[in-house]
């Protein structure tokens, strides 16, 4: 990158930082807390290497700075939730989302004392590792995606251990959840913005329970499902069929997706024992085995092309996470407390938003969305 580009990038980041901080920390009751919030966020943007509190302090101050920033994140009294709401409202104004994408995040850990840490299977790596697992809620538009909320998934071993709960200061109402359940609850927590659909990967999980929860909440959904999940398709007879069987029967009904050639799509109305207003979406690519992806929606009036376009926000979020996570310090919190983890993740999300917004202003992206990287049903 040229020096001129670096100067323009830094100037854009400073401009977005100033604009965001004007409202982001309004809920913090004291002036010194608001000042520390700005300093921590500035340090996340400026620090090189791992975004530990020590490196953040070195980027903006000295050893005394490290001490009070550690207290600000790990031991202070300010609440992360109002700050996240302010962040979500800011992102909504800057780039209104097409959907909320819920994405799992594994954060590898060396020890066993960080809140929520345990043995977690990493699908991308194909093995189990010692890690925290969280579900992030991402505001997803074609030109900007950013995480605006987080839910830390805790295992029964954590929520059932009084000593662990006390040491990490886990609130009484926090309970053990499955990955999909955790993701759905994270989405439902963005209550003020629930008119946008939830986009989530439900393969390998209890889809029925999630459907019931979302139906009761009146929430729109687009969920990736496995080919073995079973439905009743009224036009194909009374017997339950796998999702793959339903879409295989619609091979001749595939249609090109406008603006996304060589993608093809087909839809079928399907039922489950508890839901009778669902649409199964098949997506494939010309010249490849059909179908290559299967999605379930509770929005029967939405055209197939719009559902496909919305599904493509999932790889866009994956792409942006890979691009900004290390720069924003998303995986770098080293404390052990539940509240400290949430405070750091809130400010790391704000840092991600600043970086992504600044990049969008200096190097606008084309409107064409990326195609899915993984095509296994």
Q: Can you put this structure into words, describing what you see?
A:
This is DDE superfamily endonuclease. Keywords: Endonuclease, Hydrolase, Nuclease. InterPro entries: IS701-like, IS701-like_DDE_dom. GO terms for molecular function: endonuclease activity. The structure is a single chain. This protein has a domain at 198-303. Helix content is 42%, strand content 21%. The protein has 13 helices and 12 strands. The strands form 2 sheets. Strands 1, 2, 3, 4, 5, 6, 9, 10, 11 and 12 form a 10-stranded mixed β-sheet that branches. α2 crosses α3, α3 (53-60) crosses α4 and α8 runs parallel beside α9. 43% of the residues are buried. Residues 367-377 have low confidence and may be disordered.
Tell me the layout of helices and strands:
Elements: H1 3-24, H2 31-46, H3 53-60, H4 63-74, H5 80-94, E1 99-108, E2 118-122, E3 127-140, E4 145-153, H6 156-159, H7 162-168, H8 179-188, E5 198-201, H9 207-217, E6 221-224, E7 230-231, E8 241-242, H10 243-248, E9 255-256, E10 263-272, E11 275-285, E12 293-297, H11 304-311, H12 313-328, H13 338-362
Parallel strand pairs: 1-5, 5-6
Antiparallel strand pairs: 1-3, 2-3, 3-4, 6-12, 7-8, 9-10, 10-11, 11-12
């Amino acid at each position: 990158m040229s020096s001129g580009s670096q100067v323009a990038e830094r100037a854009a980041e400073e401009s977005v930082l100033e604009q965001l901080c004007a409202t982001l920390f309004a809920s913090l009751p004291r002036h010194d807390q608001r000042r520390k919030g700005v300093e921590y966020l500035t340090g996340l943007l400026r620090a090189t290497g791992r975004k530990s509190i020590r490196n953040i302090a070195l980027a903006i101050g000295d050893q005394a700075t490290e001490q009070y920033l550690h207290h600000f994140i790990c031991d202070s009294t300010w609440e992360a939730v109002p700050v996240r709401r302010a962040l979500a409202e800011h992102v909504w104004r800057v780039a209104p989302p097409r959907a909320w994408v819920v994405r799992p995040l594994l954060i590898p850990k060396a020890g066993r004392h960080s809140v929520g840490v345990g043995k977690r299977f990493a699908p991308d790596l194909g093995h189990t590792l010692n890690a925290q697992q969280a579900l992030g809620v991402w505001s997803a538009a074609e030109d900007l995606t950013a995480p605006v909320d987080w839910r830390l998934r805790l295992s029964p071993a954590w929520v059932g251990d009084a000593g662990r709960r006390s040491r990490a200061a886990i609130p009484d109402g926090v309970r053990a959840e499955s990955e999909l359940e955790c993701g759905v609850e994270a989405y439902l927590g963005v209550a003020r913005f629930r008119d946008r659909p939830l986009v989530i990967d439900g393969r390998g999980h209890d889809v029925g329970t999630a459907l019931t929860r979302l139906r009761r909440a009146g929430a729109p959904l687009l969920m990736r499902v496995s080919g073995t999940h079973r439905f009743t398709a009224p036009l194909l007879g009374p017997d339950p069929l796998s999702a793959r069987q339903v879409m295989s029967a619609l091979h001749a009904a595939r249609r090109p997706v406008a603006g996304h050639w060589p993608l093809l799509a087909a839809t079928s109305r399907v039922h489950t024992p508890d839901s009778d207003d669902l649409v199964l979406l098949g997506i494939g690519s010309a010249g490849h085995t059909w179908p290559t992806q299967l999605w379930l929606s509770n929005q029967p009036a939405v055209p197939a092309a719009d559902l496909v376009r919305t599904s493509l926000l999932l790889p866009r979020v994956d792409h942006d996470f890979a691009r900004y996570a290390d720069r924003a310090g998303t995986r770098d919190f080293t404390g052990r407390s539940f509240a400290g983890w949430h405070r750091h993740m809130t400010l790391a999300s704000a840092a991600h938003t600043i970086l992504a917004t600044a990049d969008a202003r200096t190097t606008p992206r084309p409107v064409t969305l990326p195609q899915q990287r993984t095509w296994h049903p």
